[in-house]
User: What shape does this take?
Amino acid sequence: MLSFIINIIFVVLVLSGCGNSHDPSVKSSSNLLQPSVITSPDGKTETTTIVTPFGDLVAIGKKSDDSAPGYNYKVVSQGVVIETLPDAYLSVVGIFPLQDLEVVMIKTSSAGVNGCPGNFFFVVMSREKMPTRTDYFGNCNEDFEHSEENGNVVIRIRSPIGDGSGVDEWEYDGKKLTQTKE
Assistant: This one.
């Protein structure tokens, strides 16, 4: 019984992000998350919802026909269509509090044989303005690392060019997305 209680306490501490809130290089559960994803029984509709202090962000994906590998997505918040993505896959991979904003990181993957497995964009949510999105960034590698440095969100993605030891880097300061290392 004691072992069961200790396991429950451990799970609660891990999910609450305890122990890593002061080290920005550690991925905490508040930054990397599991949004609510619901797929219809027939597999033709997928709805992903993330709740932020400034409203819900919803990605609705619909298959145009049974032969289409991906979904046609609309990313919506507060009644505004932020982005449309034809024949793609989409996942919410992180949320970053930044100044008075919530920055939601979305990964997109192109469907099909020659598809790109990973490009990203941020949806920026605030109390004062309607949601917006940044330009796309990434290099087709779907694995990334993040940190918060000097009040900015920094994303590092291993470069697929050369021997794979290089890293591409993007920084977002709440207003502008900049590639800082290539």
Q: What stands out?
A: The first strand starts at residue 36 and ends at 39. Confidence is low (pLDDT under 50) at residues 1-30. The two ends are 53 Å apart (CA to CA). The longest helix spans residues 2-16.
